[in-house]
């Protein structure tokens, strides 16, 4: 897939270093988005039924139409592998991190109409266990997004703080950790919302605080594709990450959420 718009973005690195995120609207033209959405439909229809249960989350496990998240898509399908390894998100990640990158996760994020829950404020790096915390998440809107169906909000400049803000368990499937000290005057003052049309692409630093509202529409979903890349120079604490993931999986299985 070609990126229609990355070469126009001369200030990507400056914007990313200043704000902790970038926005390209649109990264992909409408015909590219139509083709991608067909591939997403195919993946959900043909590949999801073959995937391990722990990689697919539903708002309501007994209702397949309430699909909310798919993990590691690129490991299960050649089309999405190519998009993750060779597509525009990787090139932008390399540009803003100024490093080679390691592709880590491709996630489908949906907030189904009427029931899609809010994404709690969090910093992705809190989940990543990296030193130094040099990683990015790309986020591609698969359909139009706005305040009603739960667009992304960033806290501008929040990637510049030392370490992480306090996080605790949220009870929200797919976003197990959320900030417990969110909502300071500076959080409020620096909040920027990112409504946009299908094809809008965001990318944020792993320390950038972000969140999204619940889907308040009764008729529209809010579907997006996420791309996580670690900088090659960042070292993963495998033991701490493994321990965290298996504790999380067993807690979710115990609560019959996956
Ligand atoms: O799609 C969402 O609501 C949240 C996505 C997110 O938190 C992320 O990609 O890091």
Shape: globular
Count structural domains: 1
What is the CATH architecture descriptor? Sandwich
- The percent range for helix content is 25-40%
CATH class: Mainly Beta
Integer-rounded radius of gyration: 17 Å
The biggest sheet, with number of strands, parallel, antiparallel or mixed sense and barrel status, is: 7 strands, antiparallel
The CATH homologous superfamily name equals: q2cbj1_9rhob like domain
What is the beta-strand fraction? 25-35%
Find the structural class using helix and strand composition: alpha+beta
Task: Point out poorly predicted stretches.
Answer: 1-8
Number of helical stretches of at least 4 residues? 7
Q: What would the CATH topology be?
A: Jelly Rolls
Q: How is the topology of this model organized?
A:
Blueprint: H1 12-19, E1 21-24, H2 30-47, E2 56-58, E3 67-70, H3 78-86, H4 88-97, E4 101-110, E5 119-122, H5 125-128, E6 130-131, E7 135-141, E8 152-155, E9 167-172, E10 175-179, H6 185-189, E11 191-194, E12 201-205, E13 210-212, E14 223-231, E15 235-236, H7 238-254
Antiparallel strand pairs: 1-12, 2-3, 3-4, 4-14, 5-13, 6-15, 7-12, 7-14, 8-11, 8-13, 9-10
Helix pairs in contact: 1-4, 3-4
Bound molecules: 2-oxoglutaric acid.
2-oxoglutaric acid is lined by residues 109, 119, 124, 137, 139, 210, 212, 224, 226.
What are the key terms here?
258 residues; alpha+beta; Jelly Rolls; seven-stranded antiparallel beta sheet; four-stranded antiparallel beta sheet; 7 helices; 15 strands; 28% helix; disordered N terminus; binds 2-oxoglutaric acid
How would you characterize the overall build of this protein?
The protein has one domain: Jelly Rolls, CATH 2.60.120. The strands form four sheets. Strands 1-12-7-14-4-3-2 form a seven-stranded antiparallel beta sheet. The protein has a four-stranded antiparallel beta sheet with strand order 5-13-8-11. Strands 6-15 form a two-stranded antiparallel sheet. By secondary structure, it is of the alpha+beta class. 38% of the residues are buried. Helix 1 crosses helix 4 and helix 3 packs parallel to helix 4 (88-97). It is 28% helix and 28% strand. The protein binds 2-oxoglutaric acid. 2-oxoglutaric acid is lined by residues 109, 119, 124, 137, 139, 210, 212, 224, 226.
């Amino acid at each position: 897939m070609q990126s229609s718009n990355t070469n126009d973005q001369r200030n990507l690195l400056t914007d990313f270093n200043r704000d902790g995120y970038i926005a390209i609207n649109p990264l992909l033209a409408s015909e590219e988005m139509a083709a991608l959405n067909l591939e997403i439909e195919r993946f959900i229809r043909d590949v999801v039924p073959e995937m391990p249960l722990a990689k697919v989350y539903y708002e309501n496990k007994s209702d397949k139409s309430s699909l909310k998240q798919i993990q590691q898509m690129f490991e299960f399908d050649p089309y999405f592998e190519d998009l993750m390894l060779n597509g525009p998100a990787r090139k932008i990640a390399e540009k803003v991190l100024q490093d080679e990158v390691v592709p880590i996760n491709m996630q489908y994020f949906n907030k189904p109409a009427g029931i899609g829950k809010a994404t709690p404020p969090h910093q992705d790096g809190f989940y990543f266990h990296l030193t130094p915390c040099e990683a990015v998440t790309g986020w591609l809107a698969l359909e139009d997004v706005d305040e009603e169906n739960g667009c992304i909000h960033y806290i501008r400049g929040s990637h510049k703080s030392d370490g992480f803000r306090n996080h605790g368990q949220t009870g929200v499937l797919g976003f197990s950790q959320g900030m417990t000290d969110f909502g300071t005057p500076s959080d409020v003052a620096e909040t920027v919302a990112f409504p946009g049309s299908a094809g809008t692409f965001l990318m944020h630093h792993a320390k950038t605080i972000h969140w999204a509202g619940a889907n308040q529409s009764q008729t529209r979903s809010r579907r997006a594709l996420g791309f996580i890349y670690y900088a090659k120079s960042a070292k993963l604490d495998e033991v701490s990450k493994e321990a965290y993931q298996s504790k999380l999986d067993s807690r979710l299985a115990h609560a019959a959420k996956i």
